[in-house]
Specification:
By secondary structure, the protein is an alpha/beta fold. Helix content is 37%, strand content 19%. Strands 3-2-1-4-5 form a five-stranded parallel β-sheet, with helices on both faces. It has a three-stranded antiparallel β-sheet with strand order 6-7-8. Bound molecules: adenosine monophosphate. Adenosine monophosphate binds next to helix 2 and strand 4.
Length: 289
């Protein structure tokens, strides 16, 4: 439809870039949009707070919804179209979408189930059903929009790996583009959930990126043992008692299989709670040789 509308009959040179988001847009999202604009001549941002990816005790209700502001930001950023379906529209079987949902487990409709080896680690251990919810919605978005490329942040490294894998396994005709993490001056990765933090909590939260930086320094100095790199992160996190780590893990960035040693490349990832807010961050450790 878009291809015909905007470009008449000639669809040859049209490239559509999709940036899937849950809204409450920030600089991290804008960096994905900018990349999409560089590589495509039509950019679509989807805004959908996906009930399938929230557990029953998670923040589906509180999740910030700022469609008017998002619309302005998209306009300023040169986005061509926003796709913001209502929950009932996107997921007709949802029933009471506004209550958050245990749909991820009892979905009456077809679901996309990523490999267990990729969902039993990192955030998957603490958010059962989350990545099934993500995979199902992303598959629907890709089928609805049919972009040439879709843009995802390395901030959600497990999500990116799972989506790359699902696109390969299901032969979806789309290129997945991973984009680097955008950070505040303090090192804190931009996140819609940072809105939950008080100014004091925000400065404490910077310890996540600092701890990863410590480990990266050790890695650059030659440390290859996962246990040592993880211990360095844990030691740094422990300097801020308000931070409650959920996990610190070192896995292969594509397979998400835990690594004992980082030979070529490793994904060092953290999730931690600060008050009621759950924060994640990660760094890719790459052997330069
Ligand atoms: P979300 O709205 O949180 O679902 O994020 C939408 C997309 O933006 C995902 O692909 C995220 O990985 C990406 N993203 C979120 N925060 C950042 C960030 N600080 N830097 C880069 N990408 C990000």
């Amino acid at each position: 439809y878009l291809r015909r509308c905007r470009f008449g009959q000639s669809t040859q040179d049209v490239a559509i870039g999709l940036v899937p988001t849950m809204g409450a847009l920030h600089i991290g999202h804008l960096s994905l949009i900018e990349r999409a604009r560089q590589e495509n001549n039509f950019v679509i941002v989807s805004i959908f707070v996906n009930p399938l990816q929230f557990g029953p005790n998670e923040d589906f209700q509180q999740y910030p919804r700022q469609l008017d502001r998002d619309r302005q930001l998209c306009q300023q950023a040169g986005v061509d179209a926003i796709f913001a379906p209502a929950a009932e529209e996107a997921i007709p079987d949802l029933g009471n979408a506004s209550s958050g949902s245990s749909m991820s487990r009892d979905a009456p409709s077809t679901a996309v189930v990523p490999p267990e080896s990729m969902t039993s680690v990192l955030c998957g251990r603490f958010r059962p059903g989350h990545f099934q919810g993500v995979a199902t919605i992303v598959t629907k978005l890709l089928n609805l929009v049919q972009p040439n490329r879709a843009y995802f942040g390395q901030k959600d490294a497990q999500q990116l790996a799972i989506i790359r894998r699902l696109v390969a396994d299901l032969n979806l005709p789309v290129e997945i583009v991973g984009c680097p993490i955008l950070r505040e001056a303090s090192g804190l990765a931009y996140s819609s959930r940072n809105q939950y933090l008080t100014p004091e909590q925000k400065s404490l939260a910077a310890v996540l990126s600092h701890s990863l930086l410590q480990a990266e320094k050790l890695f650059k100095a030659g440390e290859r043992l996962s246990a040592s790199l993880i211990a360095a992160v844990e030691a740094e996190l422990a300097t801020v008692p308000a931070i409650m780590p959920e996990y610190v893990e070192l896995v292969h960035p594509n397979t998400l299989i835990p690594l004992e040693n980082v030979e070529e490349v490793g994904l060092l990832a953290i999730a931690a709670r600060l008050g009621a807010t759950r924060l994640i961050d990660n760094v890719l450790l790459k052997n330069r040789k």
